[in-house]
Amino acid sequence: MAEAGADRPGAGAALRVRAFRLLLSVQLVNAVAVWVHVVGVQWLLTERGEPATVVALAPAAMALPFILLALPVGVVVSHAARERLLVRAAVASTLASLAAAGLVATGADGAVPLLLTVLVVGGALVVVGVSWQSMVPELVERALVPAAVLLDGAVFNMARAVGPLLAGIVLGLAGPLQLFAAISAMFAACVALLLLAGTPTATRPGRTESVPAAMRGALWFVRHSPWTTGLLVRMIAFGLPASALWALVSLAVHDRLELGSAGFGATMAVLGAGSVAAALTLGPVRERVRVHTFVAVLAGGYALTLAALGSLDALGVLVPFLVLGGVGWVAVQSTWMMLAHQALPEWVRPRVVALLLMLFQGTQAVGALLWGAVADVLGVGPALLVAAAVLAAYSVVLLGVGMRSSAGIEPLLATPDPAVEALVGEAGEGELLVRHEYVVAAAARDDFRRAIDALRLSRLRTGARSWEVVPDPERPGTWLETYLVRDRDLLREQETSRLTVPELRLRDAVRSTTTRSAGPTLILAPPAEPHRRPASRRRRGGRA
Description:
544 residues; alpha+beta; Growth Hormone, Chain: A; Alpha-Beta Plaits; five-stranded mixed β-sheet
């Protein structure tokens, strides 16, 4: 979590879980195939002498589907059979790589059609990534989640190293047609393994809202969860400058180091070695230091990698810096995912994880275009140095600002109140106005104000709208809390599947400042209510 924690089981313990081990193997093969495809296209564009902006479109094309599809896929994953989604995504990737092979065989392998195949592979990767990340907490127990996420990050970055290496070897020994044929076989192997594994995940409830409404609900949750917002902002601020490495590494190897495909593969292999080293060694370190210190130090090391790649011209000298970059990349990115898995409640976790993946890949896409454009103007070396300076500044700022503590945030469900459940069941159809009454002594008003402010965020992030607290003009010392809920189904979820122990503590904190409390009272909202609702942050009548 955000603070140093107790010792937790290491990577070996997570690998002893058979289902996790099997699906992690599938994830490795799939990710290797993805990166062979993407880097193969990127290297073909590089060797043809395409501008840096066009070359950078290869990683951008893989990231674009995350921007467009991750959040709706997260909604679907919340209720669908995730293992079936994995199979369908692997089939789509197989077809895309076969299409790339066909393009090469017929001589129609221009930049646009090749990049379109990357788009399809990227779209399939959205489904795989969101489904897999949502399955991790179901496959391993809570104590093993940090190790499992670190292993997953290492696997993805190992694939990022092995993929270019395989691409370089096959391109050098055979050619692009054989390369894409091999990728097709790898994706097909993933389909076969998933069908043979048949690993069912937990049964999930049916959807009670439309996909657009569920997407808005995820964004509404993030807006009213300061901890989640802070996590996403820090992830984006790291990802934008860090993306310069992946956008420009092929150009740096080709133009600055003057190496061929084998040298490019070796460079990526060294980066991958750093990723594996991070998975094997950094878990215990992360548990013993504050998260913001851990991230800031490794971000600083990653900045050194960017600076070295932009200024040194010998691969042998670059090796330790490349290892450091691999360590920093997987350690920082897996930290964001670990925190999300540990803190977010189940009802919203797949959607927020999808949003996290969307923003992560979005920063990669935007960053790839940005640093490609900078390299076209300034050159590859200066562009990498600029990115290094930005990332170094991020590291310094993070050390000073820190991160909001996640202490007390956990996805543990509270015990619902049967009386409230019964009341919700008797409510009418349509939008509901929910009202609570609090009697507050004058001496406790400041404490009540602080507690009700925290409860306001809780009500809103679990789905309420138009929250306000006002004094009752007819009863001095009595305060009325009201908010709107879409319908009784959502209210039932608020009082059951969305009611975690931390959210319940916020309610208890408000009650502890009162001499008497009552509610909820449910009132069917009139149809004309929406156009005259009060603002969601409104508090009237002075200080509570």
